[in-house]
Design goal:
alpha+beta, YaeB-like fold, five-stranded mixed beta sheet, 3 helices, 5 strands, 29% strand
């Protein structure tokens, strides 16, 4: 089975940092749970990258199971490029510029 490498663009790292800070302010335990769910979602993407539908251009979206966030990514050769980790209630135009 092909093993993909996950690459996260700097803007997506910023998204993750912003989400972690938001949850840390509410309850530090939420930050830990968010990180766990993000890790699980990333591994699911790596295991079955085409398991999520293409939603915009070539971008696919994988929702976190517990938190209202989604990982937006594209497949390029042997790489999975994470474009955004975006709150599902925020206007998608914010991250679409990254395509």
């Amino acid at each position: 089975m092909k093993r993909y490498k996950i690459r996260v663009i700097p803007a997506a790292y910023s998204d993750m940092k912003e989400a972690r800070e938001w949850y840390r302010k509410i309850n530090p335990e939420l930050t830990k749970r968010f990180n766990q769910q993000l890790k699980i979602t990333m591994e699911q993407i790596r295991s079955l990258p085409t398991g999520h539908a293409i939603r915009y251009n070539d971008a696919r979206i994988a929702n976190l199971a517990v938190f209202p966030y989604a990982v937006h990514y594209i497949i390029e050769a042997d790489n999975l490029i994470v474009l955004a980790v975006h709150h599902t209630a925020i206007d998608p135009e914010k991250w679409r510029k990254r395509l």
